[in-house]
Write a sequence for this structure.
């Protein structure tokens, strides 16, 4: 196996960037999910998991350029430290928001049941369970759970959708004949990458309705969730039986990961 793609997302729920190499430490990828949009009314972290309110975040993109996070919105481009940024985001999203790199204590997103979203549509007002962010990471970023998220080409090929819909950090190229959802077998194992990076797989990655939404110019893709509901519901420790694709990992050995690096499951 080897690393086919490296992706990071400087602002939570915005489109991110593909990079040729990146440093990993116990907090995750450098500058990944370092920033998030906070809703002024509720104090919750804005996440496209709550599609009714925040799916338009997937029409924004964020990338690191010359040390700054550059955000592209509808008809404008600004850095994250631009004094206009909160106004620009609020106007584009239709809600008063602020951009921050300081994760509030107990930072939480809303997560409607993904099957409810498929059944009733993205505009429906649905019950939403609160999900506290970063429960499995020592860092101060806005990751959903653990510092690193992986998915394999075998799983993506079986589902038939683009990698970016699942917002992975590492896309692992697997040999021909590798079964879909091989990530399920990695739970509790270590993955060695390149010349010294070690990841320890801690959970299968539960899926919300986000992969089914429009991502930039990509149209909606209900099959990104339906395939998992039909074929890969997993008992995720602490969370229940959920549709999953990919896996979460913690960084046991830090270092630089590069596209093309060999990956070995121990």
């Amino acid at each position: 196996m080897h690393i086919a793609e490296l992706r990071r997302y400087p602002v939570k729920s915005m489109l991110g960037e593909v990079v040729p190499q990146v440093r990993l430490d116990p907090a995750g990828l450098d500058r990944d999910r370092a920033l998030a949009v906070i809703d002024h009314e509720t104090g919750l972290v804005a996440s496209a998991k709550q599609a009714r309110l925040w799916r338009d975040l997937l029409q924004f993109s964020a990338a690191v350029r010359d040390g700054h996070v550059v955000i592209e919105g509808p008809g404008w481009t600004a850095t994250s430290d631009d004094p206009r940024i909160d106004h620009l985001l609020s106007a584009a999203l239709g809600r008063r928001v602020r951009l921050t790199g300081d994760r509030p204590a107990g930072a939480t997103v809303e997560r409607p049941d993904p099957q409810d979203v498929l059944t009733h549509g993205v505009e429906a007002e649905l019950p939403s369970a609160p999900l506290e962010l970063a429960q499995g990471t020592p860092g101060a970023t806005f990751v959903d759970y653990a510092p690193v998220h992986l998915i394999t080409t075998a799983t993506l090929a079986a589902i038939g959708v683009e990698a970016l819909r699942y917002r992975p950090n590492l896309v692992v190229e697997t040999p021909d004949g590798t079964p879909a959802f091989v990530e399920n077998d990695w739970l509790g194992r270590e993955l060695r990458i390149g010349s010294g990076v070690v990841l320890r797989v801690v959970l299968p990655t539960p899926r919300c309705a986000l992969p089914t939404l429009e991502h930039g110019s990509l149209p909606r893709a209900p099959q990104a969730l339906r395939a998992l509901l039909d074929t890969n519901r997993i008992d995720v420790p602490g969370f229940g039986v959920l549709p999953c694709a990919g896996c979460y990992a913690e960084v046991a050995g830090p270092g630089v990961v590069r596209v093309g690096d060999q990956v070995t499951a121990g």
In short: The chain has one domain: 2-265. DSSP finds five helices and 19 strands in the chain. The mean pLDDT is 96. Helices lie at 51-54, 85-93, 114-120, 153-159, 223-231.
